[in-house]
Hints:
This protein is mainly alpha-helical. The protein contains three helices and no strands. It has helices at residues 2-6, 20-29, 85-88. The longest helix has 10 residues, at 20-29. The relative contact order is 0.16.
Amino acid sequence: MWDFEHGSAGAAFDIAYTLPSQCAAELERGTADIGSSLPPPTQPSLIFHPAGVCIASRNAVRSILLVSRKPLDAINTVALDSSSLTSVV
């Protein structure tokens, strides 16, 4: 979002900030024209468009982190953060 917030790239857009998991829902409702997350298979009217841009990091990103007091083989259930569909997948 840096280029949109600090450069000229954002001048042509009305930018809305929302949870990544809501991007596909807003696209489906027609309240957004583009979004930053892949549409789930339950929304076949949405398409993935390879625009030559991406969300990237130069260093490690710890957006998916499993924390437990138990050993991995003793874990039976996992609670998920519903704010990111791709993290859940």
